[in-house]
Amino acid sequence: MAADWDTSAVTERMPDVMLTTVRTYKMRNGRVTASQQLALDAMAADLDVAGMTWSQLLHRADGRDVVLDIGFGFGESVLHYAAAEPDRFIVGVEVHRPGVGALCRDAGALELPNIGVVIGDARQWLTDVVPDSALAGIRLFFPDPWPKKRHHKRRFIRGPVLNLLASKCAPSAFLHIATDISDYAHDAREELSQSGSWQLCEGMSHRRERPVTKFEQRAIRDHRPVFDLLATRV
């Protein structure tokens, strides 16, 4: 469901040094189910790419372009795009173990060859492992909204992080963001429009083939509009 923009609030800008050091996600203590734990135990052999060098990851990708899915929740988007885009290798990064376990379990059942998983902070992995101009695209669906104004500095889409993402993307690579928080959408649009590295596509509905995740189902149930933003690396 596309939506009109709410321009009633613009996030106060914070110093770059703060934006590069603050945590951008909330830690949750969800219970890992038995099936998720079994999948996590088997993950290293099949899906874990966290300890790989970039050359090793490219060998695993077997010639496919690499696309990053940041904060994939329970993995619906990773599974969907891995099946829909067999010529791309989807690396999902997530900090919450129940979601990682769910993705590993479901990926194993589907036997998709083009999925890699990293448990941890995407910014750290990008900084430590990914060379410049290496990624074909990045997806960020329903990131932690940090609704309180004093917490807006923790939002993922901030200037320094956008610069990091841009440095790791090849020219013409895409950045696709989805959120059900109108203030977050407007804030992200402002950040992108002021970035010299990203060209923001006009319009607010770039849903394309994006699957409905558990987070979006909750938004639909609560009658919250969903915003999609698409930008291209220049």
Report on this model:
- This protein is an alpha/beta fold.
- 36% of the residues lie in helices and 20% in strands.
- The chain has one domain: Rossmann fold (3-Layer(aba) Sandwich), CATH 3.40.50.
- It is built from ten helices and seven strands.
- Strands 3-2-1-4-5-7-6 form a seven-stranded mixed β-sheet, with helices on both faces.
- The longest helix is centred in the middle third of the chain and has 14 residues, at 97-110.
Shape field: globular
Average of pLDDT = 83
The SSE order reads HHHHEHEHEHEHEHEHE
DSSP helix fraction: 25-40%
Q: How much is the radius of gyration in Å? A: 17 Å
Total tally of structural domains: 1
From the coordinates shown, what is the CATH architecture? 3-Layer(aba) Sandwich
What distance lies between the first and last C-alpha atoms, to the nearest angstrom? 28 Å
Beta-strand residue percentage: 15-25%
State the fourth-level CATH superfamily: Vaccinia Virus protein VP39
Q: Could you please say which CATH topology applies here?
A: Rossmann fold
By secondary-structure content and strand pairing, the structural class works out as: alpha/beta
Mind describing the biggest β-sheet?
7 strands, mixed
What is the tally of beta strands?
7
- Provide a count of the helices: 10
Give the class-level CATH name.
Answer: Alpha Beta
The strand order across the widest sheet is 3-2-1-4-5-7-6
| Residue windows where pLDDT falls under 50 for at least 5 positions | 1-20
